[in-house]
Amino acid sequence: MKMVKKILLGLAATAAVVTFVSCAEKNDENNMLDVKGDSCSIDYTNETDGYSRGFQTLKTKHVDGICKITINKNSAKDGVLGYIFNFTENADKTDNFTIAGVRINGTKLEGYVSDYKNVGGEYLSKGSDFCDAAGIQVGENNCEATCSESFSGIWKTLKTGVGNEVSVWVELVANDSTSVNRQGTKNTYTVNFYDHDPERTLNSDSIVYNASTTKLASATGIALNNPLEENVEHFSATKGQSKFGFYANVYGKQTLKGTWKIDSIYHEAEEIEE
User: Fold this and answer.
1) On the CB side of 233, how many CA atoms lie within 13 Å of its CA?
2) What pTM did the predictor assign?
3) How far apart are the C-alpha atoms of 58 and 249, rounded to whole Å?
4) DSSP for 208-266?
5) pLDDT, position 19
């Protein structure tokens, strides 16, 4: 039985400051993703009957940000476009990360948030699902990797027909429990999904919104993999960062087209030297 723990859905808010996002690390084994700075695109046809997955992180670490995801509808079920965040590496070289994903199911738009722990580094894009270091798939017996999922379900009905685009803004909020619009439990993420740009600005560590904050859905209580220490009150360029990235899962015999754009970042760290 798949090891799944539900993360509660709720309403909350987010933050960020506009900065440049660095170039990507190469862990997209199937060469599905075209990453350019803070943007990514995909136009990929999966010729197999199974899943084809792409996974790529950026070199620079950040605290939180917002990602505009646009899907070009090709069929009833093309695949998933995901925003990777909270990415950290363990001492044994396994990885922890969270994915906020968007997918089309017929004429419906769906989204989810999945939090993974102890995933084998060679299985980020290899195979049909994430696995532990021994190659045992998440949810199978004796797998040391785990997945906690929070599904927001169906949000809205889309226009039918090939070629129609839909965009979703996925906003991350790293909570410190005291700053305005960061008042969730300290060292947890809130993930907000919008069908418009919330136009947020930053006033020190507090967040101000300049457009409607009506959300499609939210997920709360996602633990930071690089939390603030107990005596540290706020995030900074050296406290609370993790890697961002892009994820795609193209279903069998399908073509997935879409784009990602990270346009607002809160506390960017220095680029990692390779």
Assistant:
1) 4
2) 0.88
3) 18
4) EESS----SEEEEEEE-SSPPPTT--S-BTTBS-EEEEEEEEEPTT-EEEEEEEEEEEE
5) 40
